[in-house]
Amino acid sequence: MVTGQPAAAPILVxxxxxxxxxxxxxxxxxxxxxxxxxxxxxxxxGQVPLRAVHRSRQAAWVPSAFWPVILPPGAMMNDRALEIxxxxxxxxxxxxxxxxxxxPFVMVPALALVGWNGIRRCAPRETEVVHLQxxxxxxxxxxxxxxxxxGGHGQTAANLFRGDGLITLRLAEAxxxxxxxxxxxxxxxxxxxxxxxxxxxxxxxxxx
Length: 208
What we know:
Blueprint: E1 16-17, E2 21-24, E3 27-30, E4 39-42, E5 46-49, E6 52-57, E7 69-71, E8 82-84, E9 89-93, H1 95-101, E10 105-109, E11 120-121, E12 128-133, E13 138-141, E14 147-150, E15 167-168, H2 171-194, H3 196-199, H4 204-207
Parallel strand pairs: 10-15
Antiparallel strand pairs: 1-12, 2-3, 4-5, 6-12, 7-8, 7-11, 9-10, 13-14
């Protein structure tokens, strides 16, 4: 055992990139600039103050199994590419989710989204990661249709996210739902391609 050496940076699987813009009463603020006591806009409870903010640095080298998920522009109505850690919980709205679970909104691990709307994985670019904690688990607004889960304090922190009234899917369940969304999108694309010349007459530019 080697002593006196600095501890190696951990491999992080959830948490928010420090550069991720979040909605607050003061406008858009980077996650890394927030401190305890700052209010953040949440999905269900409006403006809620932060209980604690924890900062970490991602390991210099990360095995591909732990690579982050990249949301290209427009994937979730985001205006620029975003990097999300694979275990970070994300809010997904879907009619298929309502059919399956009785609720249109479900929380899924970001990893489950790969392959949908151009979402993919790549080697990490972000190094500073932030864990935001509230008194109770919250889902916070990160722009477009991107809402991310943040833990409560203590036993309800971070990777133990369970929001009251929100269905949280395990990876296998979430992946099954996203696979159905991809198939649905492929069917719609085939129909549009097959009937494109017919539908083109109804496009706004065709009626101008």
